Amino acid sequence: MFKRNSFQIVLILFLFISAISCTKEEGKGGVASITGVVKIQNIDYFLKNVGSAAIAKDFDVYIKYGDSENVSDKIETSDEGVFTFNYLTPGDYTVYVFSDDTTVYKAQYEITINKMLTISDKKETIDLGEIMVYKQLEVNDGVAQVCGNVREINYINGTKFPLDTIAAQDKDLYLMYGDTTFFELKTATHYDGSFCFTNLIPGKYKVYTLSEQLLSTEDIPVFMTFEITDSTKSIQLAPVYISNY
After folding, report:
1. Residue 186's CB: how many other CB atoms inside 10 A?
2. Where in 90-189 does DSSP place strands (E)?
3. CA–CA separation, 169 and 240 (whole Å)
C-alpha cells in the first residue's frame, strides 16, 4: 500500500513539474510578433507642431518582457519607420520609445512613450499602429532659406527729394519667428545689398531692417513677412527700400 501511494505521489509531482516546465515565460521562443510604425513630430519652443509628422527611420524601439524593469531587446525602424519584434511567446509586453518632452522646453531628460499589451494566442500578431515621438527644434534646425535685397534711397540735404538709390551695404537684418516680439537671428547685407537666412524650420516669419526718418533721430523698422512650409526649399523676397536723409 505504501509503495503504491509513493508511486502516485511521484507521478503527480512529475506531471506537475512537467506542466510548469512547459509553460513559457514572456520572451523569445514562440511564433507571435509585435509590429508598428514610428513617426516624428517636430515642435518649436512654444511646444507647437512644426510642419507635418515624418517617418522615423533608423529609430530605436525597445521592449520589456513581462514585469522586467530592464530592456529585454532593442531594434531599429526600417526606412519606412516600421519595427517588428518576432518569435515571441504569449504573455505581457511593454514596447517603448524615447521622446523629447512635450510640456517643458529644453527639459533635462527625455520622456518614454509606452505601449503595454498582452499576446494571448501563440500565433498572434499585434499591430500597435503609429507611435508618435516628438523632437524640439530651434529656429535654425531646418533646411529652408530666405534671401532678399535691401536698397537705400538717398535724399538731398535732408529733404524729401531723392538723389539716388544704391545697394544698402552692411545693413543689419533681424529675423522674428511666429508671433514673438524679439528677434531670433541677425545677419547683415553684403556689398550688393543681398542677405540670406538659412536652415529655417517651417513657420511664419518677419524680417526687418531699420530706416531713417526725415527730421528725426529715431529709426523705424521696415518689415518683410513670409511663411515656410514642409515643401519650402528657398524663398526670394521682393527688394525692400529704406531711407537715408
Report:
1. 10
2. 91-99, 111-119, 125-136, 144-155, 162-167, 172-177, 185-188
3. 13
The pLDDT confidence band at residue 5, using thresholds 50, 70 and 90, is low
Q: What is the DSSP letter of 89?
A: P
- Does the domain made of 26-136 have the CATH classification 2.60.40.10? yes
Residue of 150, 134, 240, 148 whose CA lies nearest to 198: 148
- Side-chain-side CA neighbours of 211 within 13 Å: the count stands at 16
Instruction: Write down the pLDDT at residue 158.
Output: 79
Pick the CATH number of 144-244 from 1.10.645.10, 2.60.40.150, 2.60.40.10, 3.40.50.880: 2.60.40.10
Question: How is residue 34 written as a grid cell?
Answer: 509585435
In whole angstroms, give the CA distance from residue 89 to residue 27.
6
Q: If you compute the radius of gyration of the chain from its CA atoms, what whole number of angstroms results?
A: 32
What's the whole-model pTM score? Answer: 0.79
